[in-house]
Amino acid sequence: MSKSIISEGKTTTEAIENGLKELKMRKDMVEIKVLEQEDKRSFFSILAPRVVKVELTVKEGVENRRFEKKYEDIPHHEPIGEKELKQAEENLEKFLKDFTEKLSGRIKYNIKCTNELITVSLMGDNINFLIGYRGEVLNSLQIVVSGIANKGLEQRVKVLLDIEGYREKRSKTLEELAEKIAKTVIRTGKKVTLEPMTAFERKIIHCKLQENNKVKTYSIGEEPKRKVVIALK
User: Fold this and answer.
1) Residue 89: exposure state from Cβ atoms within 10 A (0-12, 13-18, ≥19)
2) Which is the most buried residue in 13, 86, 161, 231, by most CB within 10 A?
3) Residue 84 has what pLDDT?
4) How many other CB atoms sit within 10 Å of the CB of residue 33?
5) Residue 122 to residue 137: CA distance in whole angstroms
6) Considering the entire predicted model, what is its pTM?
7) Domain stops at, among 141, 164, 187
8) pLDDT tens digits along 147-166
9) What is the pLDDT of residues 184-230, one digit of tens each?
10) 138 and 158 assigned to the same domain
11) Could you say which of 134, 164, 194 is where a domain stops?
């Protein structure tokens, strides 16, 4: 017999997420039935706290796999073929040459290839505008560069764009944040949900705290607003 639970929340989305965390499963692994809608509130209950109830039933044949994985945000890929890497590098070389020349002749770039990743680094004076607030412009450029690198390829190549070492600096900032929040969670006993982050940034938080025996981390929400939660084990 399939396992079922009833979960509650202030909204339908929150109720479902609470149930998924309790079952330690993904949304595609369960069947969802809304028991109490958000808009079904009587005149006499208008001052009472809003509660939405949903029933989550594990789909037949689905194993109880953990919802929280150490690297669930970064999919693992098979090694990329040499032909694919070469084509991706040529695509990037052509684009970056034109891109840097139009912006400024003083901007330099470097392309480094491995069998799993292509790293593109931009260097130069006064190019912080390409990073933006908390890397917003950089992350947008990341999508563009990745799309250009994979143009015409059958197997997708993973590309990481960095500007003036921003990724390393951001990594240190996030690691310090992870430790600080972990201490707060341990002290108060209350979980903390961080602001939306990219997959690259979420992985930094997960990795930093994976050896901590008092707290756990997992991700909730959908891209591009997916967030990391730090809670007591």
Assistant:
1) middle
2) 161
3) 84
4) 12
5) 13
6) 0.58
7) 164
8) 999 998 888 888 999 999 99
9) 999 999 999 999 998 889 999 999 999 899 999 999 988 878 999 99
10) yes
11) 164
